[in-house]
Structure formats: C-alpha cells, structure tokens
Amino acid sequence: MKIPILNINQFKESASINDVYVNTFSNHIQINKNLINKPHSHNFYLCVLFTEGTGTHEIDFNSYTIKPGMVFFLKPGQTHFWKFKTAPEGFIFFHSQEFYDLKFLEHTLFSFPFFYSYQNPPVLELDSQKNYELQLKFLEVYKEYSQRNLLRELKIVNLLNNIYIELTRIYTLNIDLEKLSSSNYPNILATLENLINTNFYNEKFPKFYADKLNITTKHLNRVVKKTINKTTSQLISERIILEAKRLIVHSNGNLADTAFTLDFSDYAYFSKFFKSKTGITPLEFKKRYLMKY
C-alpha cells in the first residue's frame, strides 16, 4: 500500500480561500472520513487542538496520547494516523507554506520551533487556563473562515500567526531560547533537513551536505550538535530509517525491494543497518506494526 499524500485542495469546501482550511475537528473527520481513515501524509502545514476525546496519534511511527488540551503540529511529508477511543472534538486548520510566507515576507514558518525542525516534538500539552484561552483563538479563526467578511483572508492569516506566537511562547517555556534566536543555526538546520529529504536515497555522508551548504563538515556538526544535540550522520541515518519503515509497512514491494530503493547493495547489509539503529530486523518491525492494525 502506497502512503497517500493528501493535497489541501482535496479538503476544499465551496467558496473557501485558496491554500487554507479551518474546521471543527468533529466536522472535519466526518466530511473527510474517506481521506483520513488510513495512514497518510500532506503537502501542507497542520495544527489541531483537541478539546474533547481520547486516543492515540501516530506521527512518523511515534505514538502520542490524544486528550483535551493536546495540540499537534505537522509539517509537509510527515505520515500520521488518528486512532480514537472516545469521540474527539476541537479545531483544526492547515495551510500551504505560500499562504503564510507571502503575507510575512520577513518572518517564515521556520521561526516557530515546532516547524523549524523535524527533531522538535510535534506535540504540546496545554494546562486548563491556556487550553481555554487557545480555544477562544481557534474559535475566532473558525468563525472568520466560515463567514465572507471584507479582508477575510488578511484577518485569517493574522489570527493564525497570533495562535502560532502564543503556542511558541508555551512551547519554549522550558527551552534555552539562545538556541532559537542567537544565531543562524535554526535556518541552517532547516535547510539541512530539506537537503537530506531530497538526497538521502543516494547521499549518505555529511560531506555532501556540508558542501551544499558551503560550510565545513566540522561546522555543520557543530550546528546540529548545538541545536538538537545530535550529529549530521545521525540525522541522515534517522531519515533513512524513517523512509525504510514507511516502505516496509506501506509499499507493495518485498523487503529486498526496500533495500534496493534505499540504495543498499543487498538486503543483508540493509537488514544489518536497520537492526543496528532500531534493535530489530525489518521483518520483525513489519510484523509488530501490522499487529497494531
């Protein structure tokens, strides 16, 4: 099974604004149940606040608890799947990068820590007071989206920006802000991750990425170490493993095909690499994952 990549246009309602979508969560899953009833990814940025319901949210093979007060963030390309125990409610919005960046030319989505790196947790838990305050902000953007007032698009993008700012302040309460604002390191990290996403099939060594960024391998490792306490090689390996997991459980090919797709010389080498990073073989991973569903 190939992972569906959902386009923002698939969620359009009549007379909606290009490149943005806002809805209550219960209505969203009802009208789009045929699109989101299995693991999928998107070509847009997504944010959801849960006000009711329980369950699990799987993002790139990591499971997170769904409960009131949980906020989730998704970047383009991430695979995810909802599994609910009790009926969910809340608010959801998503938009293209262009919808935001064209309105804020000197301030991009990468300024927000939950979007600038795939390494940062895609989840935030709000206390009861912040949950109430954010619900009001999500409700306001939903009402604006549902109406046809003058300068509607401009107000929506400003409301979304305000939500992102408030969530960033909560998200960074226990984070060293120096890592976020004192240098250009976050921008280098974001560019590195995009380069890895594009080239990891064939380029598996840090020097290639350092050359692309016009910096030394040593400096690149310094950037990665300071921002997320990892090495460039770890980032590359993690991206390979993530893609391997996606192919193992969502493609129609066999495990040897997965090894070939990821440019390994043979399945034995791929299996050894996979087990060294995950502790289990590709076949064991496939069996365990399929047992969950």
From TrEMBL:
- List the InterPro entries: AraC-bd, Homeodomain-like_sf, HTH-like, HTH_AraC, RmlC-like_jellyroll
Its keywords, alphabetically, are: DNA-binding, Transcription, Transcription regulation
Q: Where is the HTH araC/xylS-type domain?
A: 190-288
- A Pfam family found in this protein is AraC_binding
Matches recorded under Gene3D superfamilies:
Homeodomain-like, Jelly Rolls
What is the protein name for this chain?
Answer: AraC family transcriptional regulator
- Species source reads Salegentibacter maritimus
> Lineage of the source organism?
Bacteria, Pseudomonadati, Bacteroidota, Flavobacteriia, Flavobacteriales
